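Take our chain:
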Amino acid sequence: MTDTANPVWLVVGLGNPGPSYAGHRHNIGYLVTDELARRMGSPFRAHKSGRADVVEGRFGSPGSAQARVVLARPRCYMNEVGGPVKALATFYKVPPERIVAIHDELDIPFDTMRAKLGGGDNGHNGLKSMRSSLGTGEFHRLRVGIGRPPGRQEVADFVLSNYSAAERKVLPFQVDTAADAVECLVLEGLERTQQKFNS
């Protein structure tokens, strides 16, 4: 992937590895990158760094504008994702402004999302780790809403729990829309994505 005229984007799905975490709200980033990989027609494979699984390919249809993309799922817990992301960014020569982190967001309702560039980590351990390792927060984020925990449930318990039965009926549509938003961000830019997808 050394075509300098068409630089690479790194799209990172944040989550925790392993089947016990697969259905958790904290793993929405994994679900969206799974959908993007399905659209690209390629399975995730271990990267030579040994710290992430990746898919290399393109967004966009043949004959139209295309973008070279690396989808990544770090093989570590959320609070350690910065190291693998930094290693991949260095390997593929991707600057922070061409990195997209897909993550769960407590402060917006379930089934809504917002794209943005930069900002703080808002208590999110994955973003905190990325900011620390990259030395900047100036990367793109797709914030996929999960809403606030009901009643007095602790935030940590809420994000590390499965979606409700009602939410699971809607979740495939949310994942599909989030994947659309990531493709739009890479192909058409942040402003267009915010106009189309920011709830």
Observations:
- Residues 8-197 form a domain with the Rossmann fold fold (CATH 3.40.50.1470).
- The chain has a mean pLDDT of 93.
- The beta strands are 8-13, 45-46, 52-59, 67-74, 99-105, 113-117, 140-145.
